[in-house]
Design a protein that fits this description.
By secondary structure, the chain is an alpha+beta fold. Helices cover 32% and strands 31% of the residues. The chain has a four-stranded mixed β-sheet with strand order 1-2-4-3, covered by helices on one side. A hairpin with a 5-residue loop joins strand 3 and strand 4.
């Protein structure tokens, strides 16, 4: 995570709230800023990146951590 990256911890959240909260956080950022979203809900790992891409943002990467935790790195369009 870089200094200009915001982190949003959504462990314990399920779809569709994972995307809704990600979208709301992205709306707060300036174009080009990075957002790292942390999930523990498996369906969010496919649904959220797909939805974020449909909104025009860029997925910079997805990291799988221990204990079924994923970090999705997003660059705001």
């Amino acid at each position: 995570m870089t200094e200009d990256s915001i982190e949003l911890d959504l462990r314990g959240e399920i779809c569709p709230f994972t995307f809704v909260k990600t979208k709301l956080q992205l709306e707060e950022l300036e174009s080009g800023e990075h957002l790292t979203v942390i999930f523990d809900y498996a369906s969010a790992i496919s649904n959220v990146p797909k939805s974020v891409k449909n909104e025009g943002h860029t997925i910079l990467g997805i990291d799988k951590e221990e204990n079924n935790i994923w970090k999705v790195h997003i660059k705001k369009a």
